[in-house]
UniProtKB/TrEMBL annotation:
The lineage of its organism: Archaea, Methanobacteriati, Methanobacteriota, Stenosarchaea group, Halobacteria. One of its GO terms (cellular component) is centriole. Residues 74-88 have a biased composition (Polar residues). Residues 72-100, 173-195 are annotated as: Disordered. This is Chromosome partitioning protein. Its main location: cytoplasm.
Amino acid sequence: MSLIGRSINVALALLICVSVAGTAGATLFYQESVEELDTENSQLRERNEQLRQDLQETRSDLQETRQRLRELNESLQTTRSDVGQVSENLEETEGQLESTEEELASTRQNLRSAQQRVEELQGEVNTLESRNSQLRSEVGNLESANRNLREERNRLQADVDDLNDEVSQLESEVNDLESQVERRDDQIQQLRRENDRLRSDLEAVCRQVEDPPSECP
């Protein structure tokens, strides 16, 4: 009986301990649950505030997006108008391109003709260069002949100068002789006049004499 009594007491003591421990554990669990709920509640408030901010930003982004959409619609209308203008410009450009291609073909033909002409002119240039070399050789020969002729001319000029000096001297002598001739002519004329005067006097005297001498004419 004592053993059973002690066992019962031990069991009761254990039951009491378990009850006390369970109550304490329940209290502790409740406190932890309350703290967790407070923490979650705080987190939910913060999350809710963040969601409000996100919602506000989303509304602002939506407003901006709608504004951007309106601008894009306006740009689309403008772009459609620009596309029409670009199409017209494209058609005009295609026409200009065709004209340019025709001009290019004509230019290429002119280029081929010009290249052919260049080849012909190059042949003429080669011929002219050969002729130029020949003429240079002839010019060298002519210059040599010209130098010889200049030397001959200088010699002849010296002879001419000598002859001119001699001619000048002879002209001076001729002038002196002409002066002498003129003086002699003057003397002859004077003597002739004197002779004529004397003949006239003789004839006058002879006419006055009845029996003129033989000296009378």
